[in-house]
Amino acid sequence: MSCNLGGEKSLVISPASKMFPLNELSQFFCNRQLCNHCLRVANYAAFLARILGLMEDEETTIYLAGFFHDIGKIRVGETILCKPSSLTTLEREIVEKHPVCGALVLRGLGLKGPLLSLVLHHHEHFDGNGYPARLSGEGIPVGARILGVADAYDAMTSPRSYRRVLSPEEAIDELKRCKGTQFDPVVVEAFVDSHPYLTRHTGQRCLVG
Ligand SMILES: [Fe+2]
User: Fold this and answer.
1) What is the pTM for the complete model shown?
2) Who is most buried in 13, 46, 132, 194, counting CB within 10 A?
């Protein structure tokens, strides 16, 4: 038997991936680096949702989805996530399962609706070359398009074992370079226009440490 997560394109998940969501929630909160990344992404994304004119309930959903967007990385494990060298094909496939795993963890906690869809689709690309469902353009939920930009900016400007930290200016240049391919151009423009205010008032807040 298999279970269907739903979303714009349905994804069928093996029940073998079912674990204990409260244990995973606990592990998530114990991972300071992951939690701080997620909190910054949540704040960036909620701010972008507001300046893009989304409704208040959508902003709240995007904020919560931003905070939990990478909870599925708990199932990937530190060995792969912190690997300083290139990932193997298998390791990359495991990493690319984290949006599905995250949606499953949240569903196991009783959450449902658009929040799960945003977590599931936060790595889709505007040109259809992302994952897990290869959605494209406005077929990607707007909240997921917002999360994609917020997530990428924070990932580029935060320390990672496999590459150097980019300056805010370099990260902005990268967002612009990938506008229309990886990222929604409208969201990138909103981010670039509001960047000084946005990073000063949202990105510096950390949950712990
Ligand atoms: Fe992610």
Assistant:
1) 0.87
2) 46
